[in-house]
Fold this protein.
Amino acid sequence: MAEKTTEELEQLRDLIDGVDQQLLHLLRKRLDLVAQVGAVKHGAGLPIYAPEREAAMLAKRRAEAEAIGIQPQLIEDVLRRLMRESYLNEKDVGFKQVREDLGKVVIVGGEGQLGKLFGQMLNLSGYQVVSLDKDDWQQADALLDGAGMVIVSVPIAVTCEVIREKLSSLPEHCILADLTSIKSAPLTAMMEAHKGPVVGLHPMFGPDVGSLAKQVVVVCHGRGQQHYQWLLEQITIWGARVVEAEAPQHDKAMQFVQAMRHFCTFVYGFNLCNEGVDMESLLQFSSPIYRLELAMVGRLFAQNPELYADIIFAQKDSFGVISHYLENFTKALTLIEQQDRAGFIAEFERVSQWFGELAPQFRNESRAMLQSVNDLKSH
Ligand SMILES: O=C(O)C(=O)C[C@]1(C(=O)O)C=C[C@@H](O)C=C1
């Protein structure tokens, strides 16, 4: 059924259309300026992401908005969305090449998604990149000849084997790096296989990010930092933040951040499926937070099972961490079994205290996410 309207409403809508069209022209103007900024930054070797400029700009626009009766959060939302566009557009101009005399970069597993992304970023920064994928080992010598850096980006299950068996005779000046999501075992394997500079990296994002602005790359130092410091600088120019960590500390955190998280998501979907839940009615009756939850679960099953198996099975110790979750689940479940409402509230308060200041911070963050989920709805 067509939406009802009146003549007066249509006149006002025409005026709104006019304002929206002006907005479009202003957006075009901003994008053109940002393209010029991209070219200037490319020339000067400046990072794509400028947090201080962003903070100062947002503070000024928020105050100006308030002065004319506009919610500060509105202009902040609009500008943050526009800056996301800036990261993408500035990226296309390319990046300053920090190390010009490196020789070629060989990405082992260069046809995988993450390998491809790093290849693309290095290409955009002027490096010559070649891929050495699983079917290319017969030509490995030719491909590796003249390499200044070799980056290993193969499935976790075969990373150490590939390093030990295939990369033990690289020239000493060559940098050996990996992008694996665990760090202790690959770092040890690289240190044993290679005498030269070694560095472990873990990009804390999936390959579908449009740009690296604001993303985190964990770095675990191996040896010869002075020889690969340029790479960390290059990653910073791409807009990412480099976070240093000890490999064991990183791997411990990954048991929660990756193994536990993805396994719980898997079990959530496993349960919905085994219970034969009617997804149509769940979707129809979803609150925004449930919709977001379904999206987080559903997106897992749209991806490669091998990748998640790799992540979940990467560390044997994850079993212990996940088993504790099951124990705690069972403990909490007894509260329901025994209809212990007061006990539930007491536990809730204890955990809430434990979260401390983070709890209200997370509530604010999630509010913005939930509002975006609602914005995405079309009916
Ligand atoms: O001013 C800059 O440095 C820009 O790159 C432009 C811009 C923006 O869109 O306003 C984009 C990214 C930066 O993080 C900050 C601001």
In short: The longest helix spans residues 7-44. The chain has three domains: 10-92, 104-245, 250-376. Residues 34, 37, 49-50, 53-54, 82-83, 86, 90 surround prephenic acid (CB under 6 Å). Residues 10-92 form a domain with the Chorismate Mutase Domain, subunit A fold (CATH 1.20.59.10).
